[in-house]
Predict the 3D structure of the following.
Amino acid sequence: MATKPETRSPEAHAADSHDLIRVHGARENNLKDVSIEIPKRRLTVFTGVSGSGKSSLVFSTIAAESQRLINETYSAFVQGFMPTLSRPDVDVLEGLTTAIIVDQQRMGADPRSTVGTATDANAMLRILFSRLGQPHIGSPKAFSFNIPSISGAGAVTLERQGKTVKERRSFSITGGMCPRCEGRGNVSDIDLTQLFDASKSLKEGAITAPGYTGGGWNTRLYIESGFFAPDKPVRDFTKRELHDFLYHEPVRMKIAGINMTYEGLVPRIQKSMLSKDPDAMQPHIRAFVERAVTFSACPECGGTRLAEPARSSKIKGINIADACAMEIRDLADWVGALDEPSVAPLLTSLKHTLYSFTEIGLGYLSLDRSAGTLSGGEAQRVKMIRQLGSSLTDVTYVFDEPTIGLHPHDIQRMNDLLLRLRDKGNTVLVVEHKPETIEIADHVVDLGPGAGTAGGSVCFEGTIEGLRSSGTITGRHFDDRATLKEKVRTPSGALEVRGASTHNLHDVDVDVPLGVLVVVTGVAGSGKSSLIHGSVSGRDGVVSVDQTPIRGSRRSNPATYTGLLDPIRNAFAKANGVKPALFSANSEGACPNCNGVGVIYTDLAMMASVATTCEECEGKRFQASVLEYRLGGRDISEVLAMPVAEAQEFFAAGEAKNPAAHAILGRLADVGLGYLSLGQPLTTLSGGEQQRLKLATRMAEKGGIYVLDEPTAGLHLADVEQLLGLLDRLVDSGKSVIVIEHHQAVMAHADWIIDLGPGAGHDGGRIVFEGTPADLVAARATLTGEHLAAYTGA
């Protein structure tokens, strides 16, 4: 007779005791020996002002160590192909689980990368068309715009029954790439009118491209080539002369006794200017390239990227190009209507992926949308799609401000997704500023109290109720609500936009008031950026500050990026009677041991590279002899270590008084970057800090109209007030400010609101409201109006 198993005592199983992530003694970046315990399988939100150390704790410590430990489980051979990660500066990290980071990094801007290729939806569609498409044209490769059609034939030698036999073999691969544009969807052309003035001769300066004016070698090469008369106007050239001038193949010749290579103007400019990265060009050359190069849809494939056979195969009258061009929510309905038992599992998987887009608020995108054109918020949500259907549990998901770029109407949907991930048994860590998302947290960690060196400590740990009554900056501002302006400014004029039809806009006509603060609102995908960047940004006198990240290396810092280093170097040089180049860590003054980087990298093959502070300069980046030169009692390394606020006082008066440096520092302080040190590498700045650094730099430019794209991204509730003050000062100084924004405090502060909608994609693209914030709240006729009314308590 079987005996009953003994009933276990009610005490907890040893394995259930690991329900906390323990961090002890974290010192990464500005963290000051931070020790906290984070509950697992809960939603924890990290708050604090910009630069307080939230990302340093969540991304650079917890997530980085988790990824490093996972990488170490691979063989040494495999690790050799992986990025090497060094251990974060922390004493103890316990209870870590696999971390999946969903950050705001833009998706690759490669023209071949689309929303479909980034989410595997394209791969499933290609299989679907290869099985069901009529006429049948081949395997899934035949529908890929990244695979060209190739064929070949030749003799192969085989050993058969002891004899060498030669056989003729041929092969062919049917790809879907359009042969004309090579799967890019557009072709580039050079506008010849931007290269030369046809009414002038070469001697009169016909070539107008940068570097070809005056009597330099570039111009002499063409004048003395002998292919055409130099005093004959270009418009009178014969066909042959024009070909030699523009497209002649490279040929060696002697000009003024010097051997030189002559080639046509077009290939020469293509090699010298068009093959370079636009961001690395000098501003005047970049402006010329933007004028001279025109991109147009490929005439052969009509911009679909696909070859004719791929476009000819259809399912129910729709080809794969039509399917990819549909808005995803429409495509989901189309796929849902297909009933074909032979591909049932594929249809189920594809439907799930497409419905996930709609669920996450991206149903307005199409699969052929270039991945590089997505905003940071959209790119982050596209990455989330992969996680929604995952069967993994007990994973740590790390999100970096998932509500960026979301209208208040869309935030609730994002909150539901975060809670769904948590309820599957995962640990969800979120860095966030929006009160609507902080409110749903099970646990809150508030870092601060200030930013940079004034931050890096845990000010509060606990529940939302505890945060509200904690007295920290976040707690005090948590229930802040803006009030509507009682008096709005009167416009001084209007900027006319007529027939705007970029992307999803429906022939929009709108007058944008000038001399006031204009806020453009609407749900994500309603056409705000299309209207402003498509019809306003390119005009003369318009200074546009968008969300593209700053490109910079470890050597770049706020002083080099803003141009502040030039007046500082000149002041040091003048005070000490030496040359300015000595005061640059990238030039003559660099420490010879570390080449001016301040650290020495030791490459340990597949082990993490070790960065050690340079012993010779002790991390100061300059030669010892340079540090003997002083200005106002400080050497150059001490000045670069100052925060902006301290440097502003230093250059305001006394021996170091420098109006040029003081003006640049004033702009940095105005945008809320008073805590940044002048020499902090740009690679360590957050997305919000980078955009505000760009804004400070562009404020010096001559322009009457400023266009800002979500300047509150990454801003703490307390900093939004400072930003509104800056916008007011810009308008009061006679500028016009146009802001694309979702933050209700900025909407309430506006003089004029332009609301787009009513929905996203083809349901948007129309102006649904124009007027003052008070009128928008009173009407409550749009989603924005309802949310603004609720926010202001009107």
User: Anything to note?
Assistant: The two ends are 76 Å apart (CA to CA). The first strand starts at residue 20 and ends at 26. The first helix runs from residue 54 to 71. The mean pLDDT is 89.
